[in-house]
Amino acid sequence: VFSIGIQNDSRLNQKSVKCCAVHVSKTYVSSRRCISNVSMNAQQESGSVLEQTLIHKFGQHNISRVLDSYNRIQRGDIYINTPDNNNDHRQEAHSFIESLTALPFHDISNESIPGYNWTRQLESHWTTIRDELQRAYSTSGRISKTGNNVWVPAVRDEALDYGPNWRTLVLQDREWDPVNAKLFPKTVKILKHTVQCPSVEVFFAKQAPNTGIKSHSDGCNFILTAHLALDVPENECWIEVGGIRKHWKNGKMLVFDTSFMHSTMNESMSEDRYVLLIRFWHPELKKVEIDALQFIFNVLDNPELLDQHVETMKREKESKQAMQSLDNETPNRSARRAAKRSKGTTRSNPMGFGAK
Length: 356
Fold this sequence. Notes:
Elements: H1 2-8, E1 26-30, H2 40-58, H3 64-75, E2 77-81, E3 91-95, E4 105-106, H4 117-123, H5 126-138, H6 140-146, E5 150-153, H7 159-162, E6 166-173, E7 175-176, H8 178-183, H9 185-194, E8 199-207, E9 211-216, E10 219-220, E11 223-231, E12 237-241, E13 244-247, E14 253-256, E15 262-266, E16 273-281, H10 287-301, H11 304-342
Parallel strand pairs: 3-10
Antiparallel strand pairs: 1-2, 2-3, 4-14, 5-6, 6-7, 6-8, 8-16, 9-15, 11-14, 11-16, 12-13, 12-15
Helix pairs in contact: 2-3, 2-10, 2-11
């Protein structure tokens, strides 16, 4: 999520190809990078500007984990964790924030664990969401004409792992899609207002019969993924994360960490699998860290934002220097006046009313 944009955004001078193949227990490894059409100095300068802006806006101490994560991306580091010593089950992330609970599947049934109450609430609304989706794909011709990017395949690098038979209908990609949101008003209302889902992305995902997704890592540990099963051929559809396999059950949610190697399969020979897929902030992130990460997202979408903040920092620095200069000048003026008084000099009264 976060790293893909940084690596491919020319405004931040990150065009890199990363290669890494290791079998380790828990470590960071530096990947090989090929920097194209930019000098290393320019790359470092651009990264430094963003880092300085983050510190100025949020405070270095408050977002130290975000800054560490950003600097690891700049260096091309990849986090590798193989808790069961099986490389096929490894956690692998180029966008990694320290000290977040790392589990292939997160237990949302345990009410003592904060941050997952919205998932349990969402399960109680699953039939409303399912019915709205079924109405949409029963009139697929109409929705294809009125909606944005309806049932499109995966794009970018992940298309090779997801294959052509995994299709999505996006409601939110950081920002809510105004067209598609109107096509699913009940679903959007439930997510935004009823359960107040802390989502980054929301979309319906369709997996065709007898197809699956190859094992891969999404490379980011501070965004978790939730699936609400809406219309699945039960006992014929599974997802495996970090070597743990679970089957979808209609009306039930699965929450998992896609920085672990994961794969899926729809073994049904005739039925599609439909889930509502939600990517959301890891519950153990602090609000200020989320705000900082969101700012990075915003800069990637609109690089001019960085220029605006740099200009603001410049004006504040100039204003501070002017105030310091005035403060330094004031004691000198007072000293000169005191010296004049000690020599018996007086200051002439200004001309005004009553002057002769």
